[in-house]
Amino acid sequence: MELVSVLVSSDAFKAAMRRFATGVAIVTTTHEARIHGFTANAFASVSAEPPTVLICVNRNARAHPLISASQRFCVNVLALEQRALAEQFASGEPHTRFDGVAYRLGPSGSPILAGTLAHVDCTLGEELTTGTHTIFLGQVIEAGHREGAPLGYYDRRYRNFGAFDELDEPPGPAR
Ligand SMILES: Cc1cc2nc3c(=O)[nH]c(=O)nc-3n(C[C@H](O)[C@H](O)[C@H](O)COP(=O)(O)O)c2cc1C
Predict the structure, then answer these.
(1) Ligand 1: distance of its center to the CA of 39 in Å?
(2) Is 112 exposed, middle or buried (0-12, 13-18, 19+ CB in 10 A)?
(3) Does 61 fall in a domain?
(4) Do the domain assignments include residue 7?
């Protein structure tokens, strides 16, 4: 029997993916004298041994050739009170995004932003391009974290995920 595959519509795909709640991060890099960062939520842990993460970057993003060329990036996980940074790094002129933003350079040479909940500083591993985006694998060479509330993102809006109560009791029977 011949297999027929029909791709889902882009609208249905996006609507489904919007139901996946995420945190918000700023991915940073430096290439030659240029410092760059952009807001991202396509970020995941891949492996603990060796420590590896992935980010998905639009091929049209200015960050794309910079990460490819610099071979390094840092993922900075934003705290709830850093919503303004998320907005600042998602639009506008890249050279003004770091105005007033405190950071230090990590061992990869990428900026580690102050006040974040966590960071993973990486050297670039493999790249896999599919459709509009490239998956960049990062080999993590430094990681840090602190306690605090995360900035959330769900259904195209920034969110406060709230009390973060642990669901340690199974829910009762459906009524
Ligand atoms: C919450 C949020 C998450 C985003 N996640 C990503 C992402 O994972 N990958 C990506 O390429 N762009 C993502 N974007 C879009 C970029 O932040 C935006 O296109 C930015 O202007 C790219 O900057 P650049 O072209 O200067 O590199 C996201 C935007 C927002 C608001």
Answers:
(1) 5
(2) buried
(3) yes
(4) no
40 CA to middle of ligand 1, Å? 5
With respect to residue 172, please indicate whether it lies within any of the assigned structural domains: no
Domain count, the chain: 1
Q: In whole angstroms, what separates CA 46 from the centre of its chain?
A: 13
pTM of the full structure: 0.94
Question: Residue 40 is part of a domain; what is its CATH number?
Answer: 2.30.110.10
Residue 32 is part of which domain span?
A: 21-150
Q: What tens-digit pLDDT sequence spans the chain (175 residues)?
A: 677 778 999 999 999 999 999 999 999 999 998 999 999 999 999 999 999 999 999 999 999 999 999 999 999 999 999 999 999 999 989 989 999 999 999 999 999 999 999 999 999 999 999 999 999 999 999 999 999 999 999 999 999 999 888 887 776 666 5
Atom of ligand 1 nearest to the CA of 40: 5
* Nearest protein Cα to ligand 1, atom 4: 40
Ligand 1: nearest atom to the Cα of 89:
17
Instruction: Establish whether residue 38 lines the binding site of ligand 1, counting it when its CB lies within 6 angstroms of any ligand atom.
Output: yes
